[in-house]
Request: fold
Amino acid sequence: MSGVEKRLKAGVTKDGEAFGQMPIFSDFSKIKKESQDSENYIVGMEGITHMVTFDTKQIEGYSEEEIKNKSIQMLKSRGLDQEPAAGIIYAKKTGDGWKIDPVVYVKAIDTLFYETACGSGTTALGLALALKDKKSIRGVPILQPSGLPIKISVEYTEEGFGGAQIQGPVEVIATGTLEENADFDYIVEQVKSKKQLTSLLQNGLVKLYQQVFSDAPYFEEFTDEEVIAYYDNYFKNGLVSVARNERGIIGFAVTIALSAEPEIAELSKKFGIDPEKTSYFAELGITKELRGRGMGERICQEQLEGLLKGCTVLVRTAADNFIAQTLYKKLGFQEIIEMKQDVFQTRIDGAAQTDRRVFLVKKL
Ligand SMILES: CC(C)(COP(=O)(O)OP(=O)(O)OC[C@H]1O[C@@H](n2cnc3c(N)ncnc32)[C@H](O)[C@@H]1OP(=O)(O)O)[C@@H](O)C(=O)NCCC(=O)NCCS
Reply:
């Protein structure tokens, strides 16, 4: 969490909601009611101070811009604009929970935002509620300006706050592993949605694919439309993984159901391979500058882990692609000696030629 050095508990509940422990002070003295008859609480938290106000009439009918202007004046009049970060959290009771309008000012970069969602503001409200009623609160829904609720729980004891936790629905848009390397970090992830695939294709996947196969030993040319059509099919019938670092997409791997590749499926049957129970390793490539660092192997493993135990995996590669064959053998694939295919294709220099392909197989 930004601004916090200690470890905080976080995870995903059985219902698929994400939760996170919030950094708070247990000491009640960090929360002060502005005055005896005021509805405002100043809540000191690690790295940020919020003023929680239950007086929402003052912003009723105001635009976001007007709320921001009013809020910065309120922060200034209390000297809170001199804190590293400070917010005004307008809290209104609704049904079984609350609705907030959060405005946050960050001094170092002089920014003032009407936030669409605010975890620290939600927590500040939870602390104020627990203190007001002198009791713990559990999973109270706080509706954010985004329209989604964040649930807040605060443990109240006579000695102080025992802890605070926020929880809310999350959407999985990708799963993957962060690989930490001495020279560079990268992420290997499985593509989970069509939207994610489209964004990857537009942001480097098409280019990387064209680059990898325009080089030795392939010298093949693909149009953008061809690559996009391949990946549409791969996403429908298989598993697409990419490797990324901060510069962009640096690798890709794809397995699909062998039955989705009719020509190879037919050939496979002659060698006792059942296309219905077999996955086909359809694509693999790592950007040229970053080869030989274990990424090819890592992305292959990511793919194999995503396949069903007990299934067979078939891969085809060029007979002269010694590197790919060495990699597949290292991963436990064995060559099917008699199984070959001659593929006719036009190379990038216009020369038409027939390339020999070999097949390797592995049972998971
Ligand atoms: C094949 C390819 C994906 C390998 O990626 P990579 O990230 O360089 O491979 P890794 O660093 O993970 O190497 C894994 C293993 O592959 C083999 N390998 C990789 N580079 C090799 C080389 N230059 N010579 C011999 N074996 C090599 C080794 O077995 C290596 O394991 P090791 O390092 O323990 O010896 C990459 O070379 C590539 O994109 N080639 C062009 C596209 C292609 O041929 N794709 C295969 C289509 S079937």
